[in-house]
Write a structure and sequence with these properties.
about 35% helix; about 250 residues; 4-stranded parallel sheet
Amino acid sequence: ADRLARDFAALCREHGFLPEPALQQRSVFEQVVAPLAADERVAFFLLDAFRYEMATELLDDLKGAGTVVDLKPRLAELPTVTSVGMNLLAPVASDGRLQVAGTFAGFKTGEYTVRTPADRARAIGQRGGGKASVLLNLSEVCDIEPEALKRRIRDAHIVVVHGTELDDAGEANVGPATFEVTLRALRSAYAALQKAGVKSFVFTADHGFLLLDDATLPMVPFGPRRGPRRRYVLDAHPRAESGMVNVSLAALGY
């Protein structure tokens, strides 16, 4: 994992840390969701830590008669924290650039800031032609009665499904044991929403994950003593510590 990270950082230094728009998270809504929502009801799954490899497993389960299934990569936006990746999946970019709120606590769009799942659903509804959106948790979609689900999404043009099960399991060090459970929940939610009248589905994530044992990793001192950040350091000047790579906010489209 360390060798892969170093090699990838070297590629980013050579070619730039912000990829072309077709690979950016901030473009998912405008490039993928909005065109689908122009003609039919869409379910937009925002799944914390849903790896590309897990999507390949889900892909085969979604294939069926008359169903068109596609899988394309997107690169996690930097810094790779939930408050960045999840909020960027809502339409918060303006001309490809982002206006950050606080220390990556969210993103400003119009007269408010997108920080929470409810904020994301609000921004999605407003950008989706002013048509209503509804926010549901993954577990809620799986547990609700079919008729109740139909009523819940009846007036929604975009159904936003929020899932944190994978990230929660990883933080609790029980990730692998729960992966198949989450995949079953996604299959169940897909079937339930399809029966409720949803025609198109988009599954995406904020970032992936690495399975590492914290007990075997050396501590790298950085950041403030109170609440040090595990994945990035925000500083007015470039840092040169071993194991770090520098990139300016301007180069990331902030």
